[in-house]
Amino acid sequence: AQSVTQPDIHITVSEGASLELRCNYSYGATPYLFWYVQSPGQGLQLLLKYFSGDTLVQGIKGFEAEFKRSQSSFNLRKPSVHWSDAAEYFCAVVPYNNNDMRFGAGTRLTVKP
Amino acid sequence: EAQVTQNPRYLITVTGKKLTVTCSQNMNHEYMSWYRQDPGLGLRQIYYSMNVEVTDKGDVPEGYKVSRKEKRNFPLILESPSPNQTSLYFCASSPSGGFGQFFGPGTRLTVL
Lengths: 113, 112
Fold this sequence. Notes:
The structure holds two protein chains of two kinds.
Chain A: E1 3-5, E2 10-14, E3 19-21, E4 24-26, E5 32-38, E6 44-50, E7 56-58, E8 64-68, E9 73-78, E10 87-94, E11 102-103, E12 107-112
Parallel strand pairs in A: 2-12
Antiparallel strand pairs in A: 1-4, 3-9, 5-6, 5-10, 7-8, 8-9, 10-11, 10-12
Chain B: E1 4-7, E2 10-13, E3 19-25, E4 31-38, E5 42-51, E6 54-57, E7 65-66, E8 76-78, E9 87-94, E10 102-103, E11 107-111
Parallel strand pairs in B: 2-11
Antiparallel strand pairs in B: 1-3, 3-8, 4-5, 4-9, 5-6, 7-8, 9-10, 9-11
């Protein structure tokens, strides 16, 4: 079945530590890929997106994501986490030849001082 | 300022009382959509609209209606709300298709 999976429901990292949030997708053709962030009580903000080309994508707020076709993954990374990064992160896809955006269940990030 | 606005932001109602949540965007976007967010389920699409007078069902359309009479507005209508529609609702828009959508601030709906 077609799906977007974020294996980690909740991750806790120390401020200044590196971060990687995982996202896997299951679609016949490579979909368009996105990461969104939702701060408490806020709407969703687009961090970055991948359509084609360079598999390492730079986004806002110092985030980057790497598309790996062989692993059907689009993991989000940040070298050094700040306390303000505490939020919920959603991986999303728009399947090829489709207009529907499908979201993963989300990963909640807690940042320890 | 480019934005998607939703009203109301918070709503508590009772079963069966019809309600409308409005959504408006000022970016001249063709594509608009509605999602509901529930714990552990992420966001699920309710309805989307490719353009004026063009709407289609998403993953969870039951119990909801939409209309797209103007490009900027995409109201979500619950004709007879039920407690299982208690959720956080987001409206979103994009220039075309579901790509890189701008999201509204959300409407938290409680149906008693």
